[in-house]
Design goal:
AMP-dep_synth/lig_dom; binds ligand 6R9; AMP binding; acetate-CoA ligase activity; globular; AMP-bd_C; disordered N terminus; alpha/beta; Rossmann fold; 21 helices; GMP Synthetase, Chain A, domain 3; ligase; seven-stranded mixed sheet
Length: about 650
Amino acid sequence: MAENGQPTGVYSASKDFIANAHVNAEQYAAMYAASVADPDAFWGAQGKRIDWIKDYSTVKNTSFDYGNVSIKWYEDGTLNVSANCIDRHMISRANQTAIIWEPDSPAAPAQHITYAQLLENTCRMANVLKAQGVEKGDRVVIYLPMIPEAAYAMLACARIGAIHSIVFAGFSPDALANRINDSEAKIVITADFAPRGGKKTALKSNTDQALLHCDDRVKCLVVKHTGDQTHWSAERDVDVKAEMAAARPYCPYVEMNAEDPLFILYTSGSTGKPKGVVHTSGGYLVYAAMTQQMTFDYQDGDVFWCTADVGWVTGHSYIIYGPLANGATTIMFEGVPTYPDAGRFWEVCAKHKVNQFYTAPTAIRSLMGMGPEWVDKHDLSSLRVLGSVGEPINPEAWNWYNTHVGKGKCPIVDTFWQTETGGHLITPLPGAIPQKPGSATKPFFGVKPVVLDPATATVQEATEADGVLCIADSWPGQMRTLWGDHARFEEAYFAQYRGYYFTGDGCRRDADGYYWITGRVDDVINVSGHRMGTAEVESALVAHPKVAESAVVGYPHDIKGQGIYAYVTLMNGVEPTDALRKELENWVRSEIGPIAKPDLIQWAPGLPKTRSGKIMRRILRKIAENDYGSLGDTSTLADPSVVDELINNRMNRG
Ligand code: 6R9
């Protein structure tokens, strides 16, 4: 509702909502002030929301000092994350549903997995891993569809102290092999096939291909999910379901230090190969649990649905760790929003009486295009809070979400955060912070955002500011390092703006102190909420024998947020044809995965380069945006005439 019924562009929750919320405006102000004034006291108290085996005596020990960056929270405490997400709920919630699994096909029955069943299945999986020789500190790669076994596998790793590294099931064999090798994993857990939207991805066959490039000792655990035939290697492959059925139903959990790694998750950076973001156990869990409860105003008994995939950080923190640490009922959805029709999300919301619904702007935009009738035919009266994540939400999509899904009565939490941050950094708390469509609003507790002038690297003190977004001090959910490369960690996040964590995002702060994320300022693009380095797509393209050179940039795309625009220079004598364009699209699909397929490929006989040979991406971005009137200074180019050629043959004339 707009305040006073006026279309002010500021939306507040109802009085009733505010009265029952965990946090109201006064509480937010007081708690936020306390959290930044005395982080030790604040996080010392918040740490008690999880169970410790040995209590911590220190809370925060962190330094953002380039050259000596070190981040430790609760460092002498010990705990087990799996015990926190399962065992501790056994007294009061053994028969409560922990996970509702909704399969790809609505004709198949949903599964309601209780906390007691979650414990048993996690223990069986843990025993299977142990029988395969997995020990504390070992890495386990998980390459699974959105099925309950993915949750069991994550929690089983946490239970025995193994470090999981999930690879999104949409990634190609090459991407999988790189991640198995970089983390030196002992085991990969996969499934025969991944059904999605009525189609099947051959995960086992992808894994077979990946393992050709890995150490022979890597074992392959296979969940027979669809039951379709796959190639089977007797010495290497293990039938997970059969082994689980035969395994002991209980497995003791291991005592872990707060700073022992819980998982690695690879994400795209602006340069080089994907980065293995490392999250540890204690601080991450405290932060995931607290944000899940506060940001969504999760109340005991609510049904929580985050539509992300566990292959992304959102699935880690808000399908598995946050909700389960809080004893919630969390939905795990195998399918897609448009199968069998554009009403699937809303059908599932009605069927399971979902209270909090959390999705990405790209999904909202694509459903918006199909018309409101798909929403209107389902009973959405159970919804209380709506969430958005992954990219800025445009006001048009915000309004549609608010009107058609929330019926004007559900606060929308636009949560800004990153793989690196473990949980929400800037977000409304629904009972406390009025929303402005398109703004992530205010910082979460303990988070100190600063806006820096990128030219001078100075902090802008005025309330109204425009620049790059950094964070001035650590919070418990922050990543600790990059797997095997602490120097790269410091270089990527702490070198450019000394003393600060650099998010890579641009940002504006308005007169009310609200933050508006304006998108990445580096060579990272955001396609349908999936993060991608332009360098990754470029190196896939140049790996093709007919490609001499390529430059990839993002351009505005109505549904995906950003599309992938590739400029390709072919080898001498190669004919640029539509067939070759298709071939290159398929090539990138198979090198990285379907999400990386270029939307537009422009043949570029030459690329705009400086005299020192650097590609001027600024110019290529402008041409891709169809905004070539304001190219800026092109005088430093080695050959300015290539620009006219590129403009004349541009692909995006919309
Ligand atoms: C959680 C997740 C992180 C990047 C981030 C930013 C963009 C995420 C956003 C948002 C505007 C939001 N981003 N949430 N931009 N408003 N609410 O998405 O992690 O995949 O690592 O992506 O996504 O650009 O830097 P990740």
